[in-house]
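hey all, quick one before standup. I had two proteins in the batch that finished overnight and I want to keep them in one place so we stop losing track of which output belongs to which input. First protein below, input sequence then structure tokens straight from the run.
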Amino acid sequence: MNVELLINVTPSETRVALVENGILQEVHIERRAKRGIVGNIYQGKVSRVLPGMQAAFVDIGLDKAAFLHASDIVPHTECVADVEQEHFQAGNIAELVQQGQNLMVQVVKDPLGTKGARLTTDITLPSRYLVFMPGQSHVGVSQRIESEEEKARLKDLAGKHIDEIGGFIVRTAAEGVGDLEVEHDAKFLKLLWQKIQERRAANQPCSVLYEDLPLAFRILRDYVGTGIDRIRIDSRQTFQRLKQFLQDFVPELTDKAEYHAGDRPIFDLFDVENEIQRALDRKVELKSGGYLILDQTEAMTTIDINTGAFVGHRNLEETIFNTNLEATQAIARQLRLRNLGGIIIIDFIDMVDEDHQRRVLHSLELALGRDKARFSISGFSSLGLVEMTRKRTRESLEHVLCAVCPECQGRASVKSVETVCYEILREILRVNKAYEADRFVVYASPRVAESLEGDESHNLAELKVFIGKEVSVHQEALYAQEQFDVVMM
């Protein structure tokens, strides 16, 4: 399989496309205005100690001083099993830090409003499968990995790389990975920590020692060992920085990176722009003539499969089976491309043959095999639905690129032209009873105005006779379909 990463960089936005065998599979987007500082490591300086709050303010070079609570000054590990640690009671803040003291701190919460960033001295460095804990000597395993056998296996793998430099937490994403992937991450994190220590020795207080990697760098870090054949970057400056990053941390990918200097935009190479637009549509066409309908809600995502124009060549059951089988490939791709997570309900076309059901489920599992997000698939329910879950790794493509429709306010539908016309007629009757007026003027959207003077003209004429007054209609090009005004004259 040929795998390429296309990296498109502009001053305001970075986009990364993962293309497998010429077909877009994943899109990652990061906008500069929405980048936070969580995960950044600073050489800070204590500017003020507040015993009454058991906290201190630390200058890390930002506009507002950051906040460090006494409970965040000692190492702590969250959401991890098998980690041996002392039961620590936070001491007096005045005994833990002093004004003017230099501290290495990490941001755990972005500044918000008038509040500065929240800090901790418990430094951690994440990678794809591991979290590095400097100075620790143990291995923790994510509680979300349910199998005790798998926990033990991963603990042994990570334990091979523990030394005096630090220990590790094995992340949920590591479930099922091998020794090589764990080794890649461990080496990367230790080298990164060494670079941070060197910067600390050279830098002055109130300076940044480590910034969580920008999108392009994070992608390359997370895709180490996944068989990338080519990396194309359309920004010369970013290419040079990425080249240095690869040489320092991922040398096996260095020769695969190249600067894209062609006249043709990099995302046009594999029709990426159009694929992104299509990934925002509800309907996904299948090659056979069938189609999927995807609806994303707060609670879950539903996927409905239909045969559409596909009639098959044998019998109905075979047609249904082949459509469902084809749909499994499309579903797996759409989940990755749109980054849909949480609960997913799939309504396959009803199949009578249990062997067909089993083969469709098997095909779906195989199709999801290259998905890095953790997933779980249940069998067919009594209603013929397949329930599955997919781990949320980031916001869905729709949430990143789209906002609530100002016209329908997120309902995903608007009142029909006919409905709005009848609302206008009722409004005229209401106003006529409540107020004295010689005549009425209706201002409405072009489609509604045309309907009042066309298909609904007979109803408007009857209304005029009933109230004994003239009603005129005017088009307002800027009005939404549901918007109208009834003006008394």
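OK second protein, same deal, sequence then tokens:
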Amino acid sequence: MSTIGIGVQLYTLRSEGSKDFKGMLRKVAELGYEGVEFAGYGGLSPQELKEELEQLGLTAVGSHVGLPRLKENLQEEIEMNAAIGSKYVTCPGWFKEGRTQEEFLEVVQILQHSSRRFAEHGIAFGYHNHSFEFEEKMGEKTLFDAFFSALPPEELFVELDVCWAHNAGLDPVDVMKQYAGRTPLLHMKDLRKEDGKLLTVELGTGEVDLKPILAAAPETGVKWFIVEQDECQNPPFDSIATSREWLRSSYR
């Protein structure tokens, strides 16, 4: 079996982290997670966070860094992620209504500049999807394909959120195969629809067909499964424990 790490996107635990960031990290390690993907750093300095991760035996898989910080605070993000040993930094999305071609080109320039700066420190740079990138067009291509056509694989990797790809009507495995070798990180997420509402739920408890995704992961170059729930339906630590156990028992 190919070795693929299991990490968690700490956005899932944002309420816990806002109360006790170090305690949150400690609990994640106790639950058996190997790595963490950051969405903020709890006010810790690069050296403090580096030491905390080392003490807990956690790998810094990477960080989500939004477009505003890429534009205004890039050097801070480089210093933090270089210090904690991140291998990946990802833009979590382009959140704007009425996206235009001109604005798209401006975003691509920000992504390219950021990628090249991170690459100087051995950090790969990528983009994370929601559903809208598959549903909207930019020219003749979906916004998703437009992003990954605008920059070469060495400048922009795919962090595929399998739940949102499914929600947009795609088979995530098809996307993984289309971008084989370019998708080191998978956001593992499940969903269920109740009373017209979309709920993100623990892995294996929703409608996303996750087993074929696990099977396709080694052959498409996945390095990390990253558990994420946008909104937990149960206490967040219980949710990520359930999802990790499902991954551990299902990926063989």
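Flagging for whoever picks this up: DSSP finds twelve helices and twelve strands in the chain. Residues 101-119 form the longest helix (19 residues).
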